[in-house]
Amino acid sequence: MALSEFEIIERFFHRGAISRRDVALGIGDDGAVVRVADGCDLVISTDMLISGVHFPADAEPNDIGFRALAVNLSDLAAMGAEPAWATLVLCLPEASEPWLSAFARGFFSLADEASVQLVGGDITRGPLAITVSVYGSVPRGKALLRSEARPGDLIFVTGTLGDAAAALEPDLRTAPATYTQVLRQRLLRPTPRFIVGVGLRDVASSAIDISDGLASDLGHIVEASGVGARIEVASLPLSEPLCRLLMRQRAWEFALSGGDDYELCFTAPAGQGGLVASLARSSDCPITQIGVIESKLGLRWIMPDGSLLAIARSGYRHF
Ligand code: ADP
Ligand code: MG
């Protein structure tokens, strides 16, 4: 027999949710009631994922559930917020038990890891789409913005760049599976850097998460801050599969323009370099300096021979 909306919520979403002490009322009423700590600001972010646009139509429901939360937690990380609560809106073509069960498994594996409680949502019938909203907190006035980078600040990125985009590259379909599986994993299960994000509150001057590609997203920081940047292309952090599978020039192109990495790009005053290094150690997340903020507007990508690399600022555009 087909599952009703209420059975779906009860079976797959109510039971899976952990309980946080700051949730006065979770799933089940007309609204959730949560308590924001004194002296804190609430940070809110939301992202919609549509089948065939934001994830391959044949992706595993387990991965879809994980990714729907991961891309949202990545936004909180870029704000320096500690994740706390989430809501989930599901638009499903049908109420399939195996699908829902696998989706919930992926979603809650990450929710538990990040201590996030699912406190509400909605379910409707229609083409597959998932909207997650996340809510987190920062000490008042401490949220990291895109607009506070200053000339002389160093530019850093977490992890490696270009892997998720390379996973979609047709030329690489026949490459050895040991490499392509790592790349595909990076696309389907991005690692939201929420621990690093919290650690950056008193360290970084600005931050953004890399969803559209470094060139596009660092472009947002320099524009919002009214500054420019100089980036050493040779210092872009590349994964082993990317280095093994692609000529260096091509790997750099993926690292610059490929989307879906969900790493953080941030700036910090030069005096904070030591704190950045210790954050990398304590959070077990590689952090690489890739350039420096300058007062001259625009992005300048410097090749190893000193020449300027001209790149179109692409990034995925829906319209
Ligand atoms: P209403 O008609 O008042 O909006 P719903 O029947 O949509 O109530 O939802 C009942 C309860 O279940 C609410 O607390 C809602 O937040 C929660 N809920 C609905 N869908 C989901 C979901 N996909 N995940 C988690 N909670 C959900
Ligand atoms: Mg409703």
Task: Give a structural overview.
With 319 residues, the chain is α+β, with helices and mostly antiparallel strands. The chain is built from 10 helices and 13 strands. The protein has a 7-stranded mixed beta sheet with strand order 8-10-7-11-9-12-13, with helices on both faces. A 4-stranded mixed beta sheet has the order 3-6-4-5. Helix 3 (97-113) links the parallel strand 4 and strand 5 (117-125). Helix 2 runs parallel beside helix 3 (97-113). 45% of the residues are buried.
Secondary-structure map with pairings?
Layout: H1 5-14, E1 23-25, E2 33-34, E3 40-50, H2 61-78, E4 82-92, H3 97-113, E5 117-125, E6 129-139, E7 154-158, H4 163-167, H5 177-188, H6 194-199, E8 206-210, H7 214-225, E9 228-232, H8 240-245, H9 248-257, E10 263-268, H10 273-283, E11 287-294, E12 298-302, E13 308-309
Parallel strand pairs: 4-5, 9-12
Antiparallel strand pairs: 1-2, 3-6, 4-6, 7-10, 7-11, 8-10, 9-11, 12-13
- Unreliable spans: none
Bound small molecules, by name, code or SMILES, are: adenosine-5'-diphosphate, magnesium ion
Multimeric state? single chain
Order of helices and strands: HEEEHEHEEEHHHEHEHHEHEEE
Widest sheet, order of strands: 8-10-7-11-9-12-13
Structural class: alpha+beta
How many individual helices?
10
Gross geometry: globular
Q: Can you summarize the main beta sheet?
A: 7 strands, mixed
Cα-atom radius of gyration? 20 Å
Query: How much β-strand is present in the residues?
Result: 25-35%
Instruction: Let me know the average pLDDT.
Output: 95
